[in-house]
């Protein structure tokens, strides 16, 4: 790393006398409040704006992103984040709107939320969506709270205690179930990498509250018996939950509502092109079938003048809206204020940019790109379920590891050296030495070809010179990091030098 | 590409069983070219009436001055379009920024450690409460009624899931939490934690009086401190100093846009004792193979992707980018900027207090010292109708506390920050005078 | 360079079918115009927005800037560019204002121009400024056209044919003089690196039109006999021109007007913190003494209601303004429209951010920082004029080159490797193997110390291992470039592959 | 620091002779903290009345749709705060972008090479003319009156400096340049160049008819083509195709803000023959020591810092960042975006033409084909009073050509681009009808 990339902590740069002139010098705080109510000192550095700019500019340059590189991180849908979405979210009228303004002064914002909800309703075949939850896991929690309240209402709170999740499920599924006090039962996938109707029938019963699935599942495979599964679960009185993290394969293709799901969430920060921002904020609308609508969290955006027959989108121009907090059966609210609204703007902007046809094409091309990569590497690495996949697929380095010692992790690190993000590794859990690859629809064939070439080169090198792969990365700002040390001797913050 | 894949057509590749094929036309917002899309959103923006209103709204979401440099840096594509920094070797920049955020929150709250963020202030309270529940094995929590009602509502929702009891502490005449019965309440050691907020929902400083934290802890109960106005941390005694075990709060005031309620950024900080119960991500400093300092996500054994149903929380995606905004804000402000800003909030809110209470019939509802907002009792008994009348004059006069507290339907929570101007206050006073005389209220 | 930093030309990335959807598909152009009026093909690539973002993001990361690194480029005043200035220039009302709107609808913009002009008038002691010219060189041209017109008006057009420039002058000075048809005479500096009164007296005469100087001069030295010089030139009827590129040393310190200059320019993109943007746009207001006011280029911003006695700034709030095109003696106009207005906003924002006291401190600290570096390196490199300098100073690698073969250029390249921009080299011309260092006031002591350490390390290495310095840079995206090849076989553009 | 320097105080270090010390108090805009500074500029912005007006202004500065992605990229700090890329090894990014700009301009104009930019369209014309003067050794130039009057004014200013004669070619009834007397004018071989603009000041396409360029060149005279509306290059026959030796113009339409007149970006493109006479910077592709492709400023022997008074121009700082904006704009648009945009301009301007000329008394002034603007003769004889009346209704109806052409004081130049809406045109028509009936004009 050249010297100029060094970035000492912001706390080690600042110095007294370097404050920026943002505000007039204020009176001492003790003019306003008794001394004992005040803190003694504020041990933060004063940094000149130049130093702040240089610091964060350099930090940004040491951060891998979609804007700089290809990011085939399975299950994360790292597609291009169109800048027009940000510009719309930053329109001052929307950006600077206080959440507690009276509804009549927030009509444009409510219209955005309503139009988005209606678009999602049609696109995914649910009766309604709540935009309340802040992310996917938050949405799962919301949905399971809905399920709990639903069963309570119908006197089954004490009997419906189990949530079933396939072994391919994301960790948030069982974790969310646990947060609602459900017992979690894991379901083995069949030889085709899917949930089998037989297995599910064995697993379910009168104690089944919810079965959580995604489709395509996290192996990128379409659950082709999904209707039979949801029917079976409904037959025993359970609810079906759809984890929408994989919805990028589904738009205009098939709808969770039609598959028989009662509950679902979307990761707008995946499917709807909202930037991940280094790990958030996200947005996780929850969709429900008709029987669960009363349980949605508050507030709900309600049209107050024209009530439409249509469930899907139509222009909101002549309509007026209100936030409805007064919903008897609601589970309550999940957050400080209404929704991650700026992201609703982004998601609706994305919807307008594509329309139904465009969104359908998004999913088609996402599937095409993923299949193209699979077909281009399958001669060099094991594809445990080698059939048409959807928007992502899973490879396994198990055989390679046995042969050469090179693991999935090593392949990922070697990709970093070549300018590509590592695939998701070690998830889903059922595939050993798993590499989960999701290219998304926004990448060009040239980019895919570049990645394929690098991937193939690594697989070849792994056999010829395994150490070279196990030593990766070497072109990066730092090399492999001692994670044990990080966990054993936690250093989680800067501390001022003792005086 | 299709040839290589072996598919005859794109449609073959994406085929699904007939039973689940889409049978109805999709009704979705129609496709617009970008130049028309921007006009569509301009029309949404034009339908936001609040834009030019003078505002005294606060109550958990605050208008503050944000230097342009913040967005310039935070919106850089590398930050905006990165995923969670799982691959540390190519994410040192973002990881360091999160480490700096954790440090800032620890320094501001006085606590030992802070996490990489949770969704918002309300969910921070819910998650902090779960920490306390896990730490104590107790399934009830005692919460001041002066904690933000929305935060309490979220806590209740989470509590319903986990079958926790949420009991309330009343507030006293001065507007602070009434602690007179607390020792009795804690006697049977049911409560995992006592929860207070400062400044509280009425704007009043509401830290525990000295000695009280010790008494609470003596019953095996933890203290959770809530901060809904993060700027107050620049001025007020730290949560650590009044005995908090777990500090939770909302960082919106640190440069994050109001955006009609989100995304904001929740934080959780705690003593080292509770470190391994903290939810969500943590960034630690370690060494790389060559012995160079390096940052990395750590203590992941707490998290759902490793521990699944045994995790401390289900949180995965958090509010990283809002935390980044806040980190850049704090770096640019520094202690001097924050102090000056806090001082201006104190000054402006006192000017507002003086101006409003000088009007016949408008009185302070509570006497406790406040930071940048305070409760005003209006003549005539209806906060709602006063606010409506102000609204007709282009003024958002504050928040009707009757929305959450039936006994306070004559009370408005009014907020002034460093962006409140003399002219704003003058216009409010003129309007209030008019409102009073028009309504004939006395 | 790691693979991911590769940036093929934008023309080699694009491909048909990747167009972004900015506009509705338009009717064929031949619906509107006859075929022969239309071009055959438009050989530009269609690039997806993702590819555009990735391309320019990567290009930016391969670009050295103030925001990333220290930039001690002498004569260029690479100070921090406050972001609030950009935000003010981007206020929609100012950013989207058409230059041909009637004056009454542009009052706020005219007020910005007027307030800036008045601030400059007081700060530099001139009678008036024109904001018309687009950069320093453009301003020089403007000023010399004023001089020409002035002499013409007073019947001396044919006799006043010579412009005198010291040997320390920037290349634009003689080049501008040539563009106005003047004969250029170069003046040797004295042993103190200054223009001597004696020499100037020898050089001037009835043919002298203008003497162009800067103060401090490009050696960073204050011309302490400036008053004597301007008096002497005025005595023979010549005009004095002040090149304001070095005004960052002068604010609140001394004023060209008081020194006796008749004409001057400012580089707002140096002194007034306007970003250089990779080489422009700049802004070069021209200031004149009272006798030259009538000759200023059009338009001039004129107050139409309240006409003030004051020459300096006062609040414009109650005033109204007009663009005045109707000025009999004006040289005419220098550009398509009025001024580089967005930069006037930035410059006025900078003025408001600092005020008179702040600007005075700017110059003081700029001088302090430059002297600190000089004092910290003078034991290792020759400082030809080793005295208190102003905002910059000049070192010479002549002795070092004799000893070791290492040239000024090599030192500059070695600095690049260490994360610092090279100083200006080989200017001013009179110092052999010259390195001109200007740190500006916005850099912290830590940054200066880092630079000093790197500079000293290089000078030491130059003696111990000269080849290591002559091989520099090695940490950069490319190594030294074959400039001869570039000039001999000019490749100045991409061409489509022949079909 | 002072100690090391050996100075006793900062004031000692900065002392100047008494004779030139400042003796008066400085009157400069007063220092404001940033939070107040932004309010000050908001008040300037509020004093710009034009903000919400419907506009049909053009005449060398055009309203066009600019995708948000352009500013996102162009405003990145590395681009914004770089100096001229003198140190090529650390400036490959910006150098490549300039090379791409040169390529785009060459492709759009059809010329062999283009420079890295000059100040604006008008100075591009002046500099292009100097190229022709240097190439031919002649000291006069023949310019169409249909060239933008501001461009001609700047040319005149420069010409005064160099003692060049600027003669005029009249325009014909159709609105194009009257070439009937050109052969006579060129006969004595006085002129370095003939200068035409297309679309010209009246919006009319005004390229040389086929065969004419050859005739002009046969007299040793060069042809300079001016493009004031760069978007037209996406549609119209290239300057190269109609025989231009030197193409000069204004790139503002490629994503550069109107900004009350600047900064904009001038371009100069020419045939290889004139390459070494081109002013300003040029970026070339070469190889580095290791044989890798690398970009570098080249042919610097033309420039002032090497050649001083013998340089092809005095230009140093140019408009690099505006050229970068344009480059990013062109990359994002691509041929499809540009074509669609050009098509929309053609369509909208024809809709405007039809709507306006359908009103009794409003007629087309010229018949020649146009791109996105055209001249309208108004009833009553005074373009100025019609425009004033429109202004009262919130409409900027166009540019009064009488400002520059006394014979056209009854003529408005009206512009419609892709951002002109149906509603804009409707409101204009309604207002024009009212204007006409109010004024009783017929
Ligand atoms: C399959 C799946 N489910 C759920 C989630 C959780 O979503 P979030 O991170 O938004 O909480 C993820 C995200 O990584 C996921 O991939
Ligand atoms: C001393 C001096 N004079 C004049 C100029 C020319 O200014 P500009 O580049 O703005 O045309 C410069 C710029 O480098 C300079 O340093």
Please render the helix and strand layout as text.
The complex is a heterotetramer, with two copies of chain A (499 residues) and two copies of chain B (442 residues).
Chain A lengths: L48 H13 L21 H7 L2 H4 L11 H18 L3 E3 L5 H18 L8 E5 L5 H8 L3 E5 L9 H7 L4 E6 L12 H10 L3 E4 L13 H4 L3 E3 L2 H4 L14 E3 L11 E4 L17 E4 L16 H37 L15 E4 L1 H7 L3 H10 L6 E2 L8 E4 L7 H20 L1 H5 L12 H6 L11
Helix pairs in contact in A: 2-11, 4-11, 5-6, 11-14
Chain B lengths: L1 H4 L4 H4 L20 H13 L7 E2 L12 H7 L2 H4 L11 H18 L3 E2 L6 H16 L3 E5 L4 H14 L2 E5 L12 H5 L4 E7 L14 H6 L4 E6 L18 E5 L15 E5 L12 E5 L5 E5 L6 H4 L12 H38 L5 E2 L8 E5 L5 H10 L2 E2 L2 E2 L10 E5 L6 H18 L3
Parallel strand pairs in B: 1-13, 3-4, 3-5, 5-6, 6-7
Antiparallel strand pairs in B: 2-8, 7-8, 9-10, 11-12, 12-15, 14-15
Task: Provide the β-strand percentage band of chain B.
Answer: 5-15%
What is the helical fraction of chain B, as a range of percent?
A: 25-40%
Strand content of chain A: 5-15%
Structural class of chain B: alpha/beta
